[in-house]
Amino acid sequence: MSTVIRGGTIVTASDIVRADVLIEDGIVTSIAANLPAAGHDVVDATGCYLFPGGIDPHTHLDMPFGGTVTADDFRTGTIAAAFGGTTTVIDFALHAKGQSLHDAVRIWHGKAEGKAAVDYSFHVMIGDLREDVMREIPDVVEREGVSSFKVFMAYKGTFQVDDETLFRTLRMAADVGALVQVHAENGDVIDVLVREALAKGQIEPRYHALTRPPEAEGEATARAIRLAEIAKAPLYVVHVTCAQAADAISDARKRGLPIYGETCPQYLVCDIGDYDRPGFEGAKYVMSPPLREKWHQDVLWGKLANLELQAFGSDQCSFNFKGQKELGLHNFSLIPNGAPTIEDRMAILYHFGVNEGRIGLNKFVALTSTNVAKLFGLFPRKGTIAVGSDADIVIWDPEVERTITAETHHMNVDYNPFEGMRVKGKPRKVFLRGHLIVDGDSFLGEPGMGSFLRAGRFTPVHL
Q: Could you tell me the pTM of the whole model?
């Protein structure tokens, strides 16, 4: 099977060029002006950009949490991702108490195989850092093709680890070519604030944000960075929401440390005021870390523009408002944390970033695809449009306008946190390894066609 995409403008993290693309057997084999059409299927991309398929570094599909399970599994979640222009997801395999790390990876393979409609890789979200678990890390990197591990500094009594455990994990990871990710919030402080709020009868969704202040995120981020510095280890801070955390990352990078940061669309366009929506509507925005005061958005946009934050994930973690978010109707701490964001990740960054002049096209591609591929051992197979790379290509129409709404999204959830937002720019066609999987409003792919991607060992990259 061979295809020529002609008439479009190719955008990578470094270049913008008018050229045609030849795809053969799922691989980009030629990039040039006026490629011959004879013998190939021809796709007209006139007036459109060609972006490398998006890579979402932060998803939670088919994940148990708080007595329930996320509404989107690998079938619905990856189909929604494809409609948004994402062709690879990196999901968090949840490691439960008593399990081995290999158990967690095996279970997540079972969740994804036969369902994933785009390619996928895994991080391991460590929930029980016993001595024998820590000793497994080198083998997981070697045998499983998983080279990134998430450790929690919050969720006291369940996931949270102490500083000794985090430090030892950082040193182990550095020795074997793995990258440690941290959920950076001070769980001890949050635990005190939550208990005090509930004792006062403060049960509404807004108290989720008030008991998880930005200072708790900033303190934990700075502490994790210092521990990584002592350990001589790289560190990736997930879902950065506030100036305090973002500034800590910037300061570390100025000292030459291999510290990387990620933010998410909800933190750029939603804010703490959403928790005060009428009735229980604020529960739709309960996620951790929580939404912040609006002024933090300007800081995050500035960090993205300077690439002081290097990655843009969705933190997709969908729970229905009815029946799931309502578990916390009388206690904010019981509201399942998370929001459905996988489908609109790229559109939010494109419209509010590129269209509104905050970032350029090259940085859009770097943030949504290329940097993630480099950080998580997938580049150059993924993350760029180049000869020899997988033909994961999004034909992006910059002129199409739409209103984001749960009525038309493809996620298996009954609300959208960006409901009513008007955005300009949308995928016209999406190719996964040369297969056309999205054509306008039609899904042409198949659940199960996504392939597992073994991640290479982490090596520090200049981003």
A: 0.98
